[in-house]
Amino acid sequence: MVAVFEALDPDAPGIGVAWAGEAVSRNWFDIAREYTEKWHHQQQLRDATGRPALYESALFAPVLETFARGLPFAFRSHAAKDGSSVSIAVTGPVTLHWTLRRADGKWSLWSGTDPNAQALISIPADVAWRVWTTGIKPDEAREKMDVRGDEAMAAPLTSFVAIMASRNANPRVVKGGKQ
């Protein structure tokens, strides 16, 4: 698999990353998506068997950075005026900051924080990956988030799914394999 990926032109059109709203994605994004699949399934197995988490920055940050690329698509139906922004901080074993900005009727993702955003949202890293892979329910994730400003801006963040699954189709599997 590595040889196949290495042979690909990273910027050439590849398989679309549907959860990010792309029918066609560049190869690098599809490869990153594939990494997130492998990582999150490995982490689910670790959780189920009581093994240590894969939270080393070199392994975990790319997962969250890849998932974040789907946030503009997650916010697509959230009505906001052009010029609106939402800053998101992921905290914990890795710390990452993004800002979603609305312009021309669309959301775009930027690195860093906008202190003047309509909402400043902080979410623990271990909550972010779990809610974005349907491992915890949106209301459970919301309880663990800090939202300053427009509370409604948190809803797309907790309903976003960064894997090929429906929020309603995946039963929650908890430690010990019970549902």
Main sheet characteristics: 5 strands, mixed
**How large is the count of helical segments?**
7
| Strand segment count | 7
Strand proportion: 15-25%
CATH first level of the domain at 57-159: which class? Alpha Beta
State the share of residues found in helices, binned by percent: 25-40%
Uncertain ranges? 169-179
Question: Any idea of the CATH topology of the domain at 57-159?
Answer: Nonspecific Lipid-transfer Protein, Chain A
Looking at CATH, the homologous superfamily of the domain at 57-159 is: SCP2 sterol-binding domain
Based on Cα principal axes, name the global outline: globular
Query: What is the typical, i.e. mean, pLDDT?
Result: 90
Structure report:
The chain has 179 residues and is an alpha+beta fold. It contains seven helices and seven strands, in the order H-E-E-H-H-H-E-E-E-E-H-H-E-H. The strands form two sheets. The protein has a five-stranded mixed beta sheet. Helix 2 crosses helix 3 (57-68). It is globular and about 45 Å long. The termini are far apart. Residues 169-179 have low confidence and may be disordered.
Element layout with pairings:
Blueprint: H1 2-7, E1 13-15, E2 24-26, H2 27-49, H3 57-68, H4 71-74, E3 85-91, E4 96-103, E5 106-111, E6 119-124, H5 125-132, H6 138-143, E7 146-149, H7 154-159
Précis, in short:
The protein is of the alpha+beta class and 179 residues long. It is built from 7 helices and 7 strands.
